[in-house]
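Support case: user asked for a sample of complex input and structure output to validate their parser. Sending the pair below.
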Amino acid sequence: MKKLFEQLRSYIQANRFGVWGTVIESTQVDCSVGINFLMDDRGHELMGTLPPRVLDVLTDSLSKVLGGKEPQLVTVALPEGGLKVFLDPILPQLRLVVLGGGHIALPLVKMGKMLDFQVTVVDDRPAFAHGARFPEADQVVCQDFTTAIHKLGFDANTFVIIVTRGHRHDKTCLVETFKQHQAAYIGMIGSRRKVQALMQDLREEGFSEEKLDCVYAPIGLDIGAQTPEEIAVSIMAEIIKVRHRGRSEDMKASQGDGKSGR
Amino acid sequence: MDDKVIEAILTLTPGEQAAMATIVATRGSTPRKSGAQILFFRDGRIVGTIGGGCGEAEARRHALRAMATGDPLSVQINLTHEVAEEDGMVCGGIMEIFIQPFNSGKDHDLANGGDNGGHSDEEQT
């Protein structure tokens, strides 16, 4: 039992993808209620806790959980009786990369940790990129943005916030981010006008409309944020929305059986 | 899945009793969805949440029962009935939760490091 939980923890810590299963109802003598099991990302059981015939009937449900990344309650019928199993995906921890260590980065890092992200801050100025400025960050990188992004490497688990000290650096970051695997979220700060001008530049440089379209810029939800802390809330709210495929209208407006029209 | 709950289970001291509740299914409007977890300690401490309020309080009562008997159990928590409304909690949904006790003497003795997975006959009555 403890070994299995330790294995689960090492899976979580190693950011590996898998499935944690729990037998919830059972009439099987060799597969009783409360048994846990751990599967890797190919659906292979790791500790041999489940009888093979039970594993066999779970194959389809497992690939569904691995594919959809949503938990599932599965009822299976076996000749000797039924079985109810809860399959919970073990998802890699999401990464938040804050490009730019200025005012907004301070609350962003705090909120990112609050929301369970693994947080990295990047700035090329030593005064803005050191551990004492960001004690909560998992990683503080002091390097030019191009090299830093290249070394970090983005993927579908990465949320990227571009908040450097100026347009030129923002553009460098965006161009470098485009070279990476598609991130889960790319947001860039700036006024509507600045964003338009920068996007026009990139269009002329040959970046596709599709690429430019997936950038959240101007960044954040429109909640009238003013202070760095408020802007950080607006950015993190947008990230939560993207993470859970939510919507951005008021809860009040979205009530009433879709009367709001969306 | 809640990493903090898993970590808390692994740091239980020898003999320290606790029970983990996991939401395995929901219907209608519930504060948290499938996969949310909470660890109830015998002394009242908690790690994680399955939505708070009297739904969570009801889960706690079942968790204490599971710690006493040493048997895991499935319960359905109904947030639609009158008791919930009296407390002003009218989420309106139903959640199915599964509760697993740890260190209850009878089974799952984490502190001893016993690995009884797969040989479950002795785990249950």
